[in-house]
């Protein structure tokens, strides 16, 4: 079961730490490369849009992992 302390940590603001910045930047750059490849290799359609959205969601989830667990 999730504790109140865990919930508090999950939903509080976590200011980026200097040592985290390279992680965020590397992640965004690789995600952008992947998104560009998706656009290059797929037709414009709902599935392409969904794929790009999921890449963005993955980046946000990983950002949270870095922020919350570092």
What does this structure look like?
The structure is a single chain. The chain is an all-alpha fold and 70 residues long. It has one domain. It has three helices and no strands. It has helices at residues 4-10, 21-41, 46-69. It starts with a helix and ends with a helix.
The gist of it:
The protein has 70 residues and is mostly helical. 74% of the residues lie in helices and 0% in strands. The model has no long low-confidence stretch (mean pLDDT 96).
Structural features:
single chain; mainly alpha; 70 residues
The count of β-strands is 0
Report the uncertain regions.
none
Report the mean per-residue pLDDT as an integer.
96
Write the element-wise H/E pattern from the N-terminal end onward: HHH
Give the helix proportion (percent range).
Answer: over 70%
Going by helix content, strand content and strand pairing, the class is mainly alpha
Radius of gyration: 15 Å
Distance between the termini: 22 Å
Number of helices: 3
Q: What kind of sheet is the major sheet?
A: none
Count of the domains: 1
> What portion of residues belong to β-strands?
under 5%
What would you call the shape? elongated
